[in-house]
Amino acid sequence: MADYQPVRTKVKSGKPKKRFMSEERKDALAAYLYISPFFIIFSVFSIFPIFFSFYLGLQRWNGLGSMEYVGLRNFRLIYEDPMFWKSIYNTFVIALMGTLPQLFVAFLLAFALNSTLIKFKNFFRISFFMPNVTSIVAVAIVFGTLFTNSETGLVNLVLSYFNISPINWGTNEWGLKVAIASMVFWRWVGYNTIIYLAGMQSIPNELYEAAKIDGANLRQQITYITLPLLKPVIIFTVFVSTIGSLQLFTEPLVFLGRTMREEGITMVLYLYREAFVNNAFGTASAAAITLFFIIIVFTTINLLIANRLGNSK
User: Fold this and answer.
1) CATH says 74-311 is which class?
2) Which of 167, 260, 277, 305 could form a disulfide with 175 if both were Cys (CB 3.0 to 4.6 A apart)?
3) What's the whole-number average pLDDT of the chain?
4) What is the mean pLDDT of residues 128-147?
5) Where exactly are the structural domains of the chain?
């Protein structure tokens, strides 16, 4: 008689079958897919050009032919070029002339708009911000008319009333810088005004009322209330304006045109000329790398100053 062997049946476990992807992972994947176009475009048009510029700074390339490795020769060429150092000088001078007065005037305009004495505030807000969204071509036409070299130009006509000889704004060393700085001032003062105004409106009005009761005048209110509470906003505007002034390109380009005179050429305009006029992409990349490290240095200085001001009592 054969041995009896019982039939064994598989008992299914009560645990549910593990899914390939949980609901949380599906939600996370969907979120990443939605934001992926931005990172793809940012990588292609921002991150890749940055690393490619570092590679191109060591090559000799005219944009069409084959590349030739030259090491640090491109850096030596631009550092021996007087025009490169002139562009750095022009950039800092125009930045100081256009940025510092701009921030000061923007603060005063914002303080005036924040007061109860000014009527039609919405009209003034739109008017101040309008230059920031105006076409740069229109800006070039307007300022080209204002700073024309003829005696009948508006600015030269005003100067004639003060017995000042007409200035050739297109070739004069300081006249050209003043014209470009005026464009920068006019275009960005409204933007900073709106930023300052938003910061001032976050300050409780009770502080000003208490200060008035204690006999504080307008200067004391600004010194002891507005400036301390507006410090983060001021640091932000200085930070952004510093970086923007070092990357100044559009205003001098539209004012100078294709001439790119040495009296008004900036660092970005210099590397643009090297790349798209002289077809020297290696030296242009070397100039861009140098500008990159200059911006890092000034950004670090701004951060150190901001941290020190932020920690001060």
Assistant:
1) mainly alpha
2) 167
3) 84
4) 82
5) 24-56, 74-311
